[in-house]
Amino acid sequence: MPIHEFRCESCLYEFELLLMSKSEIEDVRCPKCQSPDVEKLMSASNINTSGAPRTERTGNSIIQKTSAGSFVEHRQCQSGSCSTLNLAGHER
Fold it and tell me: In the chain, where do the E strands start and end?
């Protein structure tokens, strides 16, 4: 997925944005102070090398977990279906 990490050079706030094209990077502003002075950070990749994830079913949710502690939760929502992605070692 094209999720990019940025740091604002004015207020040092770090944030992530989902950008669908490279041209959108030019228009990025800090969501905290609205400064256009942002730096794109190098993102660390998160790769599962321990084999297939475990799948658990809980009520209306299906949770796929890896041994690294990452998981993807798929739920039935009013709008159809929703997903939550939790990457081990990644803070929001």
Answer: 3-8, 14-18, 38-40, 54-58, 61-65, 71-77, 80-86
